[in-house]
Amino acid sequence: MAIARSIFLRASRSQWLAENLMRRSFARRAIKRFMPGEELSDALDAAAALSPANLGTILTKLGENLASLAEADQVRDHYLDSYDQIRERGLQRSVVSVKPTQLGLDHSLEACAGHLERLAAKAESVGSFLWIDMEDSSYVDRTLELYRRVQANHPAVGIALQAYLRRTPADLASLLPLNPIVRLVKGAYAEPPHVAFPAKRETDLAFYDLAGTMLEAAGRGRTVPIFGSHDIPLLRRIVGRAEQLGVAKGKYEIHMLYGIKMEQQRALAREGHAVATLISYGSAWFPWYMRRLAERPANVWFVMRSFLG
């Protein structure tokens, strides 16, 4: 399993594979499992379809590490328009998630901060929310700085933290005085063992411990914990911990990806949990797709069935 994960993470950085596989019809069929389409309209249609099941949605356009600040301006404008389209379609539980490198972080911290401020202000003006996603470990310090700057003026902004990074307990502790909204995920980038836990068991233990810290803080009104995982047994343990601490279902959320364990997502929502589905769209899907396969290499069998079918 570890070897397969390493192979997929290495493949996610291959431009040659991206250029060759993205043109293949079998690859485009396989990606349909994890994303409804490449256009914002596809994501909005999927969000509307999930709404009757009481599933909230988070919309994110794929693509990171842009070549210029001009491209970042275009991404900012796309997301500004996304909020308008979400409102026009009455999708009250749909919000937006962005990666800082989509907004020019590789080129200018200040430009990226300005874009995030614009988006946070837009979200606030329409009664919505903005998620700031976390990328690989080289971006953590800058992303946390951006979050602190934007959240100081716009409380309806959340940040993702990755449980497999050894530094995350300290990062979470530093954020708690801000009463943050934190989405805890396991992590899906290739990292050296001195930076991130190499074994799944270690990451699972770290996730549970961090979840406990977040729930304890939620009990004191200091955070809104979000648990982003498809690990149902782990989520059930966390739900049990919430019950022990007296944290009601509406005081935390569970987030999962579109196309993965959808029936379990619906079942959790029926039980009264706040559940949201992350819907990705866009043409730059190859690196993201490889990271999804790395999270669960058994998904390769689905790709093979798509190829044979």
Describe the overall structure.
The chain has an eight-stranded parallel beta barrel, surrounded by seven helices. Helices cover 50% and strands 14% of the residues. By secondary structure, it is an alpha/beta fold. It has helices at residues 2-11, 15-21, 25-31, 40-50, 69-88, 109-125, 140-151, 168-175, 200-219, 232-245, 262-270, 286-295, 300-308, and strands spanning 56-61, 94-98, 130-132, 157-162, 181-185, 224-228, 253-257, 274-281. Helix 7 links the parallel strand 3 and strand 4 (157-162). Helix 3 packs across helix 13. The model is unreliable at 301-309 (pLDDT under 50). It is globular, with a radius of gyration of 18 Å.
Give a short summary of the structure.
The chain is of the alpha/beta class and 309 residues long. Helices cover 50% and strands 14% of the residues. 39% of the residues are buried.
Q: What are the SSEs and their pairings?
A:
Blueprint (H helix, E strand, L loop, with lengths): L1 H10 L3 H7 L3 H7 L8 H11 L5 E6 L7 H20 L5 E5 L10 H17 L4 E3 L7 H12 L5 E6 L5 H8 L5 E5 L14 H20 L4 E5 L3 H14 L7 E5 L4 H9 L3 E8 L4 H10 L4 H9 L1
Parallel strand pairs: 1-2, 1-8, 2-3, 3-4, 4-5, 5-6, 6-7, 7-8
Helix pairs in contact: 1-12, 3-13, 5-6, 6-7, 9-10
User: How large is the count of helical segments?
Assistant: 13
Uncertain stretches of 5 or more adjacent residues: 301-309
Largest sheet, order of strands side by side?
A: 1-2-3-4-5-6-7-8
Report helical residue fraction: 40-55%
Could you give a short account of the major beta sheet? 8 strands, parallel, barrel
Distance between the termini: 26 Å
The number of E-state strands comes to: 8
Beta-strand residue fraction: 5-15%
Sketch the topology as an H/E string, one letter per element: HHHHEHEHEHEHEHEHEHEHH
Shape type: globular
The Cα radius of gyration reads 18 Å
Secondary structure category: alpha/beta
Query: Please, what is the average pLDDT?
Result: 88
